[in-house]
Amino acid sequence: MSELDLLVRGGLAALPDRMEHLDIGVFDGRIVALEHNLEYRAAAILEASGLILLPGAIDAAVRVGDFASGSAALAAGGVTCLAELPGAAGFGPVFDRDDFIRKREMGKALSRLDFALWGGISARNLYELASLRDCGVIGFQASLTPFGPGRPQGDLLPVTPDVLGQAMKRAARLKLPVGIEVYDPDPDLELERLQTVLLLAGEAGCRLHLWGITVPEGISLVEDARGREVDATVATTPDDLLLQARRAGNELGSAWRAGRIDLMVSGGRPGALAAAEHGFPEIWTEAALNPEATLSLAKTVARFSARTAHRFGLDRRKGEIAVGRDADFALLDVDEPRTLSGEGNPYAGREVWGRVVRTLQRGKTVFANGSIVKVAKAEEACFIRP
To answer: What separation in angstroms does the CA of 173 have from each of 58, 83, 95, 294?
Structure first.
């Protein structure tokens, strides 16, 4: 290595256990040096003084729909790797190997970001789960929620508890998690559904990843299940934390700040892309500007990156600012007050302080100064598997 491809200089880096001003050396898409006053020749230098340098966020449960525009919106929120949820017919189902290949090639051609894929669970594809594992899915998503108010059109068809239990047993043997959004407009039905899912996961011995819990009592149910050795993680979304549009309100925010919620995702509901684009930076900024917060910024950021990478087996490459990992960064400016706008944007009118000014994936800028950067060639994005 005669010279670095990129030298990022002077930023306040969010490391796994602390915040520290460091220079970062990048070569061939990977971090090769983390030092004070790094003295290397570099083909390009990025001055990051006055900015917070975060590991790129991993959105482990999102439905982008159109890979091109959806991944661009995520990049604007500091996301560098997405895990695309399967949809119903016409919305990118991933129920078998052919579905998987079709969606993977679509992502490679159109996505601006590295991406992973979830497989779907249906009553007809239980014998396809092993094939999907071999293809490289990060887990299997199921739905117990009937179509109705609040459900996006592209959601999976719901399965019965019996089918879900069978799928969980297969997933346990395949050593992959099952992901479920448990939200229901009726809070009692949401808690009932959550209890069912936790019971089935315990019987099957499968890893479980949950999001869409909007009833605070649901967090306690998950904690009780962990005491019975159910391997479950809980994610929330910026919509549920910031917009307080539904039942959880401040109680869910308190659970997040107390560390009782494991991860952050944008989710698969309408408005999810705006949640990542505007909500992720707002949550980071709140942690950065609040020295009395229960969680430090480094620990908050880990729930967008390092813990997500570890949970889904992506931590050989993703999740931390560390030597040997992919050079995935989000540069955050927390000293730029503004009012969000945009027709149809659920965050319009919110007064915020921070914004992502640049997003880099494997050392290359994909978003800067409010605009997506044109990719240099086709298939710039990389399919990531556990």
So the answer is: 26, 22, 18, 38
CATH for 6-52+326-372, among 2.60.120.260, 3.90.1150.10, 2.40.30.110, 2.30.40.10?
2.30.40.10
The DSSP symbol for 96 reads S
Burial 272-309 (b: 16+ CB within 10 A, else e): bbbbbbbbbbbbbbbbbeeeeeebbbbbbbbbbbbbbb
Radius of gyration over alpha carbons of the chain, in Å? Answer: 20
Domains of the chain by residue range = 6-52+326-372, 57-311
- Alpha-carbon 119 to chain mean position: 16
Give the whole-angstrom CA distance, residue 303 versus residue 320: 11
Measured distance CA(277)–CA(383) in Å, rounded: 22
* Nearest Cα residue to 159 out of 121, 107, 197, 186: 121
Measure the CA–CA gap between 115 and 192, rounded to whole angstroms: 33
Determine whether 246 is exposed, middle or buried from the number of CB atoms within 10 Å of its CB (0-12, 13-18, 19+): middle
CB 373 within 8 A of CB 367: yes
- Under CATH, what is the fold of the domain 57-311? TIM Barrel (3.20.20)
Question: What does the alpha-carbon distance between residue 172 and residue 26 come to, in Å, rounded to a whole number?
Answer: 38
pTM of the predicted protein model: 0.94
Residue 232 token pair: 């479950």
Residues 6 or more apart in contact with residue 122 via CB below 8 angstroms? 95, 156, 157, 159, 163
Mean pLDDT of successive 10-residue stretches along the chain, which has 386 residues: 90 92 96 93 96 97 88 95 82 89 92 95 95 98 69 68 96 97 89 96 98 91 97 93 63 88 87 84 89 75 97 96 97 88 81 92 92 63 90
Residue 88, pLDDT score = 59
Half-sphere exposure of 21 (CA within 13 A, CB side): 8
